[in-house]
């Protein structure tokens, strides 16, 4: 199977670090034109310069803060007024702060809902008309294995990730007839700055060393290690391709076998 994304344009959110960056790099290597979305202008320029353009790709970026959904909407619409349609949308946003659901301020839930569900909705409403016109499209949401099994100490994240998954499944039913697929990738423990921060937080909470927490975390993964961001990107690349045209409405765990559920 040869995955070729040449002439496709992909919006990749949260693309200046971690999983989002890896996805942008992978899709560019497969020939896609990349539109990076993040809030750090300097990092956006830096990542844009790193993207493969050997197949004639043209890469762009949109500087936008997902905590300001109205601003995001305006900037995305401005981009679409000047450029062709978007074929692939990768919704990827940094997770809420760690902590229990009981201890979370109610505002943490509303902020997370805005960052994840509302902003995703804004992006979908912006790009779907073009996808419908072309008769195809790929919407891929990077969520978490907490959709299947809530993760202790991530109360707000567990709640919001579940909401995104339900929203996504609903969209898959609504958009399938137009050749648009909507799927979720559920990364397990992935070697990113966010995971490191979560492990450090857990080490403080349970009064253990970070090394002990890391070893214990890897111990529950049959693969015996954390994923690399690139391994998540490979799954995304397949779902973004024409080869995945009959895969719609699924939650795809990429977790080294850690989940206990079927």
Topology:
Elements: E1 9-13, H1 18-29, E2 33-38, H2 41-50, E3 60-63, H3 69-82, E4 88-91, H4 106-134, E5 137-142, H5 155-175, E6 180-187, H6 193-206, H7 210-219, H8 229-240, E7 251-254
Helix pairs in contact: 1-8, 3-4, 4-5, 6-7
Q: Can you walk through the features of this model?
A:
This protein is an alpha/beta fold. It has a single domain (9-189, 228-254), classed as 3-Layer(aba) Sandwich (Rossmann fold). 47% of the residues lie in helices and 14% in strands. The chain contains eight helices and seven strands; from the N terminus they run βαβαβαβαβαβαααβ. The chain has helices at 18-29, 41-50, 69-82, 106-134, 155-175, 193-206, 210-219, 229-240, and strands at 9-13, 33-38, 60-63, 88-91, 137-142, 180-187, 251-254. β2 (33-38), α2 (41-50) and β3 (60-63) form a beta-alpha-beta unit. The two termini are 27 Å apart. The relative contact order is 0.15. The mean pLDDT is 97.
How many strand elements?
A: 7
Radius of gyration, rounded?
Answer: 18 Å
How many separate domains make up the residues? 1
Percent helix, as a range, is: 40-55%
CATH topological fold name: Rossmann fold
CATH class: Alpha Beta
Arithmetic mean pLDDT: 97
State the distance separating the first and last CA atoms: 27 Å
- Give the DSSP E fraction (strand runs of 2 or more residues): 5-15%
Q: How many strands, which pairing sense, and closed or not: the largest β-sheet?
A: 7 strands, parallel
Q: From the helix content, strand content and strand pairing, which structural class follows? A: alpha/beta
CATH superfamily: NAD(P)-binding Rossmann-like Domain
Q: Which strands sit side by side, in order, in the main sheet? A: 3-2-1-4-5-6-7
CATH architecture type: 3-Layer(aba) Sandwich
Order of helices and strands: EHEHEHEHEHEHHHE
Oligomer: single chain
Individual helix count: 8
Low-confidence stretches: none
């Amino acid at each position: 199977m040869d995955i070729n994304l040449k002439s496709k344009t992909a919006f990749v959110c949260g693309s200046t670090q971690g999983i989002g960056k890896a996805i942008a790099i992978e899709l560019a290597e497969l020939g896609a034109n990349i539109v990076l979305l993040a809030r750090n202008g300097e990092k956006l320029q830096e990542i844009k310069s790193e993207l493969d353009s050997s197949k004639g790709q043209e890469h762009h970026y949109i500087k936008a803060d997902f905590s300001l959904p109205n601003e995001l909407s305006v900037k995305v619409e401005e981009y679409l007024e000047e450029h062709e349609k978007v074929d692939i949308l990768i919704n990827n946003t940094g997770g809420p702060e760690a902590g229990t659901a009981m201890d979370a301020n109610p505002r943490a839930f509303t902020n997370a809902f805005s960052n994840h569900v509302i902003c995703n909705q804004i992006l979908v409403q912006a790009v779907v008309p073009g996808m419908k016109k072309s008769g195809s499209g790929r919407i891929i949401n990077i969520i978490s294995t907490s959709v299947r099994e809530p993760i202790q100490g991530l109360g707000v994240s567990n709640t919001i990730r579940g909401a995104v998954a339900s929203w996504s499944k609903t969209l898959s039913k609504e958009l399938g007839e137009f050749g648009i697929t909507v799927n979720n990738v559920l990364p397990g423990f992935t070697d990113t700055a966010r995971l490191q921060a979560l492990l450090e937080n857990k080490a403080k909470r349970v009064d253990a060393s970070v090394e002990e927490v890391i070893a214990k975390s890897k111990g529950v993964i049959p693969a015996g290690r954390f994923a690399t961001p690139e391994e998540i990107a490979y799954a995304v690349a397949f779902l973004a391709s024409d080869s995945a045209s009959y895969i719609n409405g699924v939650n795809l765990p990429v977790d080294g076998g850690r989940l206990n559920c079927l």
